[in-house]
Amino acid sequence: MRNYLFLLVFVLIGGSIAAQEVAMSASEISAFKQKVIATAKSTNSIKADFVQFKHLDFLANDVQTSGKMVFKAPNLVKWEYTNPYQYSVIFKEDKLLINDGGTKSKVDIGNSNLFKKLNELIVNSVKGNMFNDADFRVSFYKVSKHYKAVFVPKDKKIANYIASFELLFNKDDAQVHEVKMIEPSKDFTRIIFSNRVLNSKVNDSVFSN
Amino acid sequence: MIRFLVISLSLVFSLTSCSLKTTEGLRPIGLNENGKLNKEVENLYFSNPEIDYVYKAKIKVYKKNFGGILIVKKTGPKNHRVVFTTEFGSKLLDFQFDGDKFTKNFVVEDLDKKFIINILRDDFKLLITEKSDILKAFSSEVHNVFKAQSEERFNYYFFEKGTGKLQKIVNTTKRKEKVEVNFTSTEKEIADIISIKHNNFKLTIDLEKFKKK
């Protein structure tokens, strides 16, 4: 009897999880991809606020930081943390321009394939258009208000750092709402965007240190 | 001639044995003077298991600068986790201290070199070590100073008189200062700013505690 009860509970819980997250059908996936690609194509610039949560299993609370992100097509990105400290990184060609509370530095990533890949991920995840990346296995799900794309690295070296990479897209405008990077240890970083402004004028001077 | 030798030798001996700048001008005091002194010296800056200790870190090695976030948590009576991440949250290293046992849970490939790991392990160990037996006690106008053994080296703990705040730890060999850690704190058991400076090579680690919102 007890076993049946367990089974019933299991089925109910399992059922509710399945109801929250459903794999997308092939036709849904292709329609969704087209929408994301079309949106990315028509997007010349993005400005957004973000909140970042770093989850470590041994902490009482996630480490929370926040700031602003600016993207300008085709591949300029600036991440600027403003709380609780001032720190910005500009992704520009093969360089990272860093301003750490007034201490400026430049990092050349041209020689590091791994670093290049990680940066490409960050840049592409802002646009959402990274489905054709041959380095990942991608699967798609529907979750209440969002579509979810899960990227699992094929490359073992990348897999040492990232177990998977999840992007949540708004169902209505196909914009990236949330980025989640899960480490092999299951600890993760979540970045949630808000106050998104599309296609406003962004000067190139934003991307210099 | 023999007399000259004895004098010069004893002079050399006394000069080398007293060459630690750390203890210059300090007055040695008896451990049981007035019965006031404990036998153990305490560093309480990472001692509260309820607190997630989170710091913005700036590391300067020779002329290169690195940034990141340092997270320290007391996970048991003699246990600490120390994790260093980039600003984006990617883990660079994850250390675990269980009493005297040290475990390297994770280190990013570029940093995984023995001498780097050893330096960082020793620096973090110096920060989180809560209690040490006092070997000697000193006093100056502004500080009470306690000397403690740290494996084959020594740590000198400087406490501000009056407030009782730990302001400085100096890690030394018998003759030379190796590492100096300075603390700035508004509350007694919370270090707002920590600066770790190495004397034998150009490495400084500056830590600033995340402000409460």
From TrEMBL, chain A:
Signal peptide: 1-18
CDD domains (alphabetical): LolA
Alphabetical UniProt keywords: Lipoprotein, Signal
Superkingdom, taxonomy of origin: Bacteria
The keyword Signal belongs to this UniProt entry's keyword annotation: yes
Pfam families associated with the record: LolA
InterPro entries, per database record: LolA/LolB/LppX (IPR029046), OM_lipoprot_carrier_LolA-like (IPR004564)
Record-linked PANTHER family: OUTER-MEMBRANE LIPOPROTEIN CARRIER PROTEIN
Designated name of the protein: Outer membrane lipoprotein carrier protein LolA
Source organism per UniProt: Aequorivita xiaoshiensis
Automatic annotation (TrEMBL), chain B:
Organism: Aequorivita xiaoshiensis
Protein name: Lipoprotein
Superkingdom, natural source: Bacteria
